[in-house]
Task: inverse folding
């Protein structure tokens, strides 16, 4: 992924995070941002780190966040699997 692609990914990240109204501590936000970028460039196959909250709530927030990311880029993300129905 080129630098312009990473910059766009960061814009989508910020926009999607603000739409979900998910309040994260600065350290949790950095971990999530790092994980999402690693997922986008193929360095990591999945995201599953505790960013705060209990499991059902964390799952719902993460799925909602990823759905907003998909909307921002105009369709389903090939690297993102929908776990909201599992």
Result:
């Amino acid at each position: 992924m080129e630098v312009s692609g990473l910059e766009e990914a960061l814009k989508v990240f910020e926009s999607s995070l603000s739409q979900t109204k998910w309040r994260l501590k600065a350290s949790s936000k950095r971990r999530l941002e790092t994980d999402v970028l690693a997922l986008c460039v193929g360095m990591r196959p999945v995201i599953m780190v505790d960013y705060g909250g209990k499991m059902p709530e964390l799952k719902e927030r993460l799925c909602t966040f990823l759905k907003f990311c998909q909307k921002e880029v105009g369709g389903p993300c090939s690297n993102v699997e929908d776990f909201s129905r599992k």
Notes: The chain has one domain: 3-73. The two ends are 30 Å apart (CA to CA).
